[in-house]
Design a protein that fits this description.
The protein has about 650 residues and is an alpha+beta fold. The protein is about 70% helix and about 10% strand.
Length: about 650
C-alpha cells in the first residue's frame, strides 16, 4: 500500500470519526489556548515588571499543573477512543494491513489532529491573550493601560509540551495495536462485568466501613488544628478517598443488587436501562467516579477558597488594619516624630484627616488553666488598651464588662477563635502578678500594630490597672500609638503614596491600610485567576471524560435500543430510563463532591476572619451549573442514538 493510499485512508477515517472527535478536539484546543495564555503571561514584560517576577513564577507553576491535568485528560480520552475503535482497527488488519501500517495510520491521524489543535489553539491564544491580561489586571485592581507583546518563547514552549503529549499518545496507540489480538479487537466493545451475588456479610462490612471512613474524615476535618496538623490532613484525605471508593464499589453496588433481587430479576424498562448498565460496569465506574468525585471536591475547594479570599479581601484587610495609618515605637524609632512629619505633608497637600493618640500598657501575659491552643505558646506579649481612647480615635469598640477584656490578635485569630470563653490570662512584671478574664476573642486587631496581642478593656478598668502598676518602680511600660484616618478615598490613595515616601526616605518600616489592601487584592486576584482557569480545564476534562464514556456505552447499547423500538417502545419511553442512569453517573459524583468540598471549606475556614458562606456557595453553584451542561449534552447524544437505532 502506497503512502498516498495510506494518507487517503487516514482522511477517510477522520471524516468518519469527526462526530466522535469534535468535543475531544474542542477540549484539546481549549487546553492549548489556556496553556499558551499562561505561557504568554509568564513571559509578558508588563506582568513581570508589576509583580517583580512573582506573577511569572506563579504562572509557571500553574502552567505545570495545567499541563498535568490536560495530559491526563488527553491520554485517558485517547484510551477511550482506541477502545471504541477496536473493531475498526481489527478490520484494517483483516483486509491485509500489518500492525505497523495500522500504527502508522493512527499516528498520522493523531498527529494531524494534534497539529490542527495546536495551530488553532495558538492562533486563538494570540487573539485572546490581551483579554485574559485585562481580566487579570482587573482582578488585581490595576487600571492602567496594558499592552500585550507577542511572545515567541510562549509559542515555542507551548509547541514543545504539546508535541510531547502527541508523542505520548502515539506510543499509547502503538502499544494498543501490538498488544491486542484480532479476536480481542472485535470483542473489545462487548467486554463487561457479569454482576455477581455479593457476599452479604463482607459487602455489609465494607459498605459500613466506607461510610464510617467518610464520616471520620468529616469529623477529623473540624478538629485538625493541633500539633499534628500535617498528619491530620493526610489522614483526612486518605480516609475520604478510600471511603468514597468503597461507597461506589461496594455500598452502591450492594444496594443495586438488592433492588434487582427484590424484583426477582424483572427490572422493567426503566430499571433495565438505568440499573442494569451500571451493574455491568460497576468496577470500572467505581474507579472513574471515585477519581472524579475526589478531584471535583479538591477543585471545588480550591475555587471556593480562591473566590472567598478575593471576596473578603477588603474586609479582611480592614480587620487587620482598623486605622488608615498608624505610627508607634515598635516599627519607628520615634513614632510621634514620624506621625508629625506625615501629617505635615498631609497639610501641605490639603488632605483632610483625623488624628488621635492611643495609649497602651505593654505587659507580659500568659494563658492560664490550659486554655491556650496546642500550636501556640502559653506566654505572650500584650498591649492593654482603653476602649474610650479607641472610640475617640474612630473605632467602633465598646467594652461593657467592668473587669474583663476582649482579646484581639489577627495573626493567630484562626487558632484563638476556637477557645471557649471566658478564660483567664495572667499579667506580670518582675515584681507584681495579676490576672484578667477574657470574655470574647474578637476578629482582627484593635490597632494596626500586630507585634503583640491586644487586650481591650473598659476605660475605668484601664485607669485602675494604670494606677496600680505604672507607678511601681518596676511598672509596666506605657507606649503611644498615633493613628490617622483619611475619609476621602481619592485622598487616601495620595496619602498612602506620601506614607510610603516618608518610610523610604527615613529607612523606616510600616504598613498602611491602603497599601496592604492593594497587596492583598493582587495576591487574591492572581489566585482566583489561576484557580479559576485550572478549575475550568479540570471541569472540561472530567466532564468530557464522562461524556466520552457515555458515548461509548450508547454505541454499545444501540442494538438494544433498536430491539426496544421494534417492540413498540417510543423514544420517550426509552429516554426515561436513560435519564435515570445519567442522574447516577453525573449527579452522584457531583453531590458527593459538593459534600466533600463543604467539609473541606469548613476545615479551611480558619484562614478567614469573615463569613465565607456566600462566596463559597456562589463558586460551588457555578461549578455545578457548568458540570450539569455535560449531563444535558450526554442525554442529547443518547436521544440521537435512540432515534437513529430503528
Amino acid at each position: 500500500m502506497t503512502a498516498l493510499t495510506l494518507f487517503d485512508l487516514v482522511i477517510r477515517s477522520m471524516r468518519k470519526n469527526i462526530k466522535h472527535y469534535y468535543l475531544y478536539f474542542f477540549a484539546l484546543i481549549l487546553s492549548v489556548v489556556l496553556y499558551f495564555v499562561f505561557a504568554t503571561l509568564q513571559h509578558d514584560p508588563s506582568v513581570v515588571e508589576r509583580s517583580g517576577g512573582s506573577m511569572g513564577a506563579a504562572f509557571k507553576v500553574a502552567g505545570i499543573l495545567l499541563l498535568f491535568i490536560a495530559g491526563i485528560f488527553i491520554v485517558y480520552a485517547n484510551a477511550i477512543f482506541l477502545k471504541r475503535r477496536s473493531r475498526e482497527i481489527g478490520l484494517y488488519q483483516l483486509i491485509g494491513l500489518t500492525k505497523g501500517s495500522v500504527s502508522r495510520l493512527l499516528i498520522i491521524e493523531n498527529s494531524l489532529l494534534g497539529a490542527g489543535a495546536l495551530a488553532i489553539g495558538i492562533g486563538i491564544g494570540i487573539l485572546v491573550s490581551r483579554l485574559f491580561l485585562l481580566l487579570l489586571m482587573k482582578l488585581i485592581g490595576f487600571d492602567g493601560f496594558i499592552e500585550v507583546e507577542f511572545s515567541t518563547a510562549a509559542v515555542i514552549q507551548t509547541v514543545i509540551v504539546f508535541l510531547a503529549i502527541i508523542i505520548l499518545t502515539s506510543i499509547q496507540m502503538i502499544v494498543a495495536v501490538y498488544r491486542n489480538t484480532l479476536l480481542g479487537l472485535f470483542n473489545a466493545d462487548k467486554t463487561g462485568e457479569h454482576p455477581k451475588k455479593p457476599k452479604a456479610f463482607m459487602s455489609a462490612l465494607l459498605a459500613v466501613l466506607g461510610i464510617l471512613l467518610i464520616a471520620f474524615g468529616y469529623w477529623l476535618s473540624g478538629r485538625m488544628m493541633n500539633a499534628l496538623l500535617l498528619i491530620n490532613m493526610v489522614v483526612v484525605l486518605a480516609t475520604t478517598i478510600l471511603g468514597t471508593y468503597l461507597l461506589f464499589r461496594v455500598a452502591i453496588g450492594w444496594v443495586l443488587y438488592q433492588i434487582r433481587k427484590r424484583k426477582q430479576g424483572h427490572l422493567g424498562l426503566n430499571n433495565s436501562l438505568s440499573i442494569a448498565p451500571i451493574m455491568h460496569r460497576m468496577k470500572a465506574n467505581a474507579n472513574s467516579l471515585t477519581i472524579i468525585t475526589v478531584l471535583s471536591a479538591m477543585t471545588l475547594t480550591m475555587l471556593a477558597g480562591a473566590y472567598s479570599l478575593y471576596y473578603s479581601s477588603e474586609k479582611e484587610t480592614r480587620l487587620v488594619y482598623p486605622f488608615d495609618f498608624a505610627f508607634d515605637n515598635f516599627w519607628y524609632e520615634d513614632g510621634q516624630e514620624a506621625s508629625a512629619q506625615f501629617v505635615s505633608e498631609l497639610d501641605k497637600q490639603n488632605i483632610a484627616y483625623t488624628y488621635a493618640t492611643v495609649e497602651t500598657l505593654q505587659v507580659d501575659g500568659e494563658f492560664e488553666d490550659g486554655s491556650a491552643p496546642e500550636m501556640i505558646s502559653t506566654s505572650f506579649g500584650a498591649n492593654i488598651i482603653s476602649d474610650k481612647q479607641l472610640q475617640q480615635a474612630g473605632a467602633d469598640i465598646e467594652i461593657t464588662e467592668s473587669d474583663a477584656a476582649h482579646l484581639y490578635d489577627a495573626g493567630i485569630y484562626w487558632l484563638l477563635k476556637s477557645i471557649e470563653v471566658p478564660f483567664n490570662v495572667g499579667l506580670s512584671n518582675s515584681e507584681i502578678e495579676s490576672n484578667m478574664k477574657v470574655v470574647k476573642v474578637s476578629e482582627g486587631n484593635a490597632l494596626n500594630s500586630s507585634a503583640t496581642t491586644q487586650l481591650v478593656v473598659n476605660d475605668a478598668f484601664y485607669q485602675k490597672l494604670k494606677d496600680q502598676f505604672v507607678n511601681d518602680e518596676n511598672g509596666w511600660r506605657i507606649s503611644n500609638t498615633y493613628v490617622i484616618n483619611v475619609p476621602d478615598q481619592d485622598q487616601l490613595i495620595e496619602a498612602s503614596d506620601i506614607f510610603k515616601r516618608i518610610n523610604k526616605e527615613n529607612d523606616q518600616y510600616g504598613f498602611d491600610y491602603y497599601s496592604q489592601y492593594v497587596r492583598t487584592m493582587e495576591s487574591s486576584g492572581l489566585f482566583i485567576f489561576i484557580s479559576g482557569f485550572l478549575g475550568l480545564v479540570f471541569l472540561i476534562s472530567t466532564g468530557s471524560i464522562l461524556y466520552f464514556k457515555q458515548m461509548t456505552e450508547a454505541e454499545q447499547e444501540r442494538s438494544s435500543y433498536a430491539t426496544l423500538r421494534q417492540l413498540g417502545f417510543t423514544v420517550q419511553d426509552i429516554m426515561r430510563g436513560i435519564v435515570r442512569k445519567q442522574v447516577f453517573v453525573f449527579g452522584l459524583p457531583l453531590l458527593i463532591g459538593l459534600l466533600h468540598s463543604i467539609f473541606a471549606i469548613k476545615a479551611a475556614s480558619f484562614i478567614f476572619m469573615s463569613d465565607i458562606t456566600l462566596p463559597a456557595s456562589i463558586a460551588m453553584g457555578l461549578y455545578a451549573l457548568i458540570y450539569l451542561v455535560y449531563a444535558f449534552l450526554t442525554v442529547g447524544y443518547y436521544r440521537k442514538t435512540v432515534k437513529a437505532a430503528l
